[in-house]
Amino acid sequence: MSAVIEVERLVARYGEHTVLKGIDLQVQAGEIMVIMGGSGSGKSTLLRHLLGLQAPYSGQVRLLGEDINAIPPQRLVELRRKMGVAFQGGALFSSMTVGENVMLPLREHTRLDESTMQIMMRLKLDIVNLAGCENLMPAQLSGGMIKRAAMARAIIMDPRLLFLDEPSAGLDPVVAASLDELILKLRDATGMSLVVVTHELDSALKIADRIAVLDHGDILVCGSVAEVRASSSERVQALLNRRIQPLELNPEEYLKRLTGVPVSGGATA
Ligand SMILES: Nc1ncnc2c1ncn2[C@@H]1O[C@H](COP(=O)(O)OP(=O)(O)OP(=O)(O)O)[C@@H](O)[C@H]1O
């Protein structure tokens, strides 16, 4: 197997706040890598770095062998054609039909004729079980259908890398489970590599080849479902057992967070 995503010593900062503390991560060809972690652990920040939407403070992100922060703009455009993304809310344009939404990347990145684009769009809608929905408007879709349409748009260019941000968030368990099936089907049919950011433990356990558990900007464990389950880390076990961890702050830090003002040893006059 070869690595299609290589993250090396990635540090991300917002001002003085270090959010990713030197992360190493590799995703292999054809692999489904799930990124899990509590709220604020840095999942979205990591995803934005993987997509090249945010530049690292230090460290490297290589996609298909290319350092996305160092390649010339034209090569970056070519690289982006090999990447598909479905954002959390679906991000469909409400004024366009489902079909137009799905064809958007083809219109932007290719010079295919209209009938070819229509055929490709119908094919992708068929794959995500939305055959015949091309003339509907996004407002006419259920939550699960919006996610599927967003996925059809994300795979319209047959990407080698597919990034899914919280694909099953907000869906009822049955719809979420069918989306998991779809993710597995997609990978098996195309051999693409997927990075899936999710809060949903059931979904992660079902679809992941490997899970990376992020916590306070570090990867606590990265491995198969069995390896993650066997982790001796209390925080990993807390995540698996959905236990709520007490806030690990000393009183001074707690006050600082609450007020935004550092407490300088004792009362102020
Ligand atoms: N644009 C930003 N400016 C400043 N701080 C930010 C910014 N985006 C995120 N952060 C901070 O970085 C930390 C990690 O945030 P991030 O959104 O990456 O976490 P997350 O794991 O995706 O959380 P959630 O699951 O709640 O979406 C948080 O402390 C957050 O407040």
From TrEMBL:
Entry's Gene3D superfamilies?
Answer: P-loop containing nucleotide triphosphate hydrolases (3.40.50.300)
Q: Which UniProt keywords apply?
A: ATP-binding, Nucleotide-binding, Transport
User: Which InterPro entries has this protein been placed in?
Assistant: AAA+_ATPase (IPR003593), ABC_transporter-like_ATP-bd (IPR003439), ABC_transporter-like_CS (IPR017871), P-loop_NTPase (IPR027417)
Keyword Nucleotide-binding among record annotations: yes
Alphabetical list of SMART domains matching this protein: AAA
What are the ABC transporter domain coordinates in residue numbering? Answer: 5-241
Report the GO molecular function annotations: ATP binding; ATP hydrolysis activity
Q: Which SUPFAM superfamilies match?
A: P-loop containing nucleoside triphosphate hydrolases
Whether ATP-binding counts among this entry's keywords is yes
**Pfam families linked to this entry:** ABC_tran (PF00005)
Write down what this protein is called.
ABC transporter ATP-binding protein
Q: Which organism is it from?
A: Solimonas fluminis
